Amino acid sequence: MARPSVLVICAQNQWFSAARLPSALHAAGADVQLFAVRDCFARFSRYLSRSVEIEVGMSFVQWVDALFDLVRTSRPILVIPADEQAFRLLTELVLNPPSGLRPDVRSELEGLIVRSLGDPAHFRSSVDKIQLTEIARTAAVPQPQSVIVNTLSQARQAASAVGWPVVVKRRHSYGGSGVTVVENESALDRLVGQWLSPGAAQDTLAAPQLVLQRFDPRGVWSYWVTAYRGKVLAGWAARKIREHPARGPATVRQHCEHLQMRRYSEALCNAFDLTGVCGFQFFADADGGDPVLIEINRRITPGMGNASLLGIAFFEPLLAALGASQDEASELARRAPGGQILVEFPQEWIRDSDSEYLHRYPNDFPWNDLHVARALMNAALGHPLE
User: How many CA atoms does the CB half-sphere of 52 hold within 13 Å?
Assistant: First the structure.
């Protein structure tokens, strides 16, 4: 039986989360195609059937044309955004396609994207911090105390209400950008003045607004899912143990199941009628108690590609759902991790080359994909990837 074709899009250079994706998808039974920028780690994988480069300076129209050529020849059943920019390009193609796009091109690409990501009505709201605040409330998913503000005066009042320090979030953020912890009013004035200035708008279709939230000092957890038409097919949780830089991505995690985080993730997937991969982040106690939602990432995030290393069937049920019944897909998702600690390479090596975690616990060094390993090593050392 022929392997189903899956297309991975990587639009940002040196995005660690993309490195192990071809291997993971191949292990799940997929024939992996890649549409990526030159310095995408996945481009070095031996598990690719085909790789097409996103050229520097390519316009949106040229990007769409190149994507259509690849889709027309590879016939993927699923497209996966490996980074934030890839997700935005895909959703923009559906919501605001370039003028003059041929009807047959638009129809084929839109069909693939909707089949892969779910209802377009929620493409923006699911990753917009302003809209997510309201939707999470409706879905009864707890969040830190939050206030939406339009002006500096409102921001000062909100900060006084929720207490210092306060977390300030822009409408869109990823990789630590667009989110800042503010300790006092003078720092708040500077930040809000900058982020609410006329030239700082992130979305021309929406008013300039910010979210101010109560700072939660507890640990950060991730809950990763694959979903189909609003139903979670597979998922598991991971607690951040070490991070780099401060308040940045995890470098060491403990992986486990978490029923309450799963329920909250199921509620949000249902609210957004979501299909594909998604990473939810929560604040929670060290034992996972009393989780509150931080954000949603509708793309591959660091750690997600390690499912097979942990014995988790993650991508398999999604592939099955796209070509089989959901009952059959659910049968594939019964394995769950049991508290394993996994060190992420090279992130923990960059943080501390003599880390005790590197000595004591297993890591995700890609021994099965040595060209990817070499690219990761080169990036960690500041060398060109090849």
Answer: 17
Q: Are 127 and 279 in contact (CB under 8 A)?
A: no
The two three-digit tokens of residue 256, written as one number: 């486990």
The rounded Cα 260 to chain-centroid distance in angstroms is: 20
Which pLDDT band holds residue 247 (cuts at 50, 70, 90)? confident
Q: How far is CA 74 from CA 1, 7, 115, 239, 342, in A?
A: 16, 8, 16, 37, 34
What is the overall mean pLDDT for the chain? Answer: 91
Which residue has better confidence, 230 or 171? 230
With a CB cutoff of 8 Å and minimum separation 6, the contacts of 185 are 156, 159
Total-model pTM: 0.93
pLDDT of residue 250: 94
Domains of the chain: 5-121 (3.40.50.20), 145-214 (3.30.1490.20), 219-380 (3.30.470.20)
Residues 246/220, Cβ–Cβ less than 8 Å: no
CB atoms closer than 10 angstroms to residue 83: 26
Q: In the chain, which ranges are continuous DSSP H helix? A: 21-27, 60-74, 84-95, 103-117, 129-138, 152-162, 185-195, 259-272, 316-321, 326-331, 347-351, 356-360, 370-380
Q: DSSP class of residue 282?
A: E
Contacts of 201 (CB under 8 A, 6+ apart): 208
Least confident interval from 134-138, 249-253, 284-288: 284-288
Query: Quick check: 327 pLDDT over 50?
Result: no
Whether 333 and 319 have beta carbons less than 8 Å apart is answered as: no
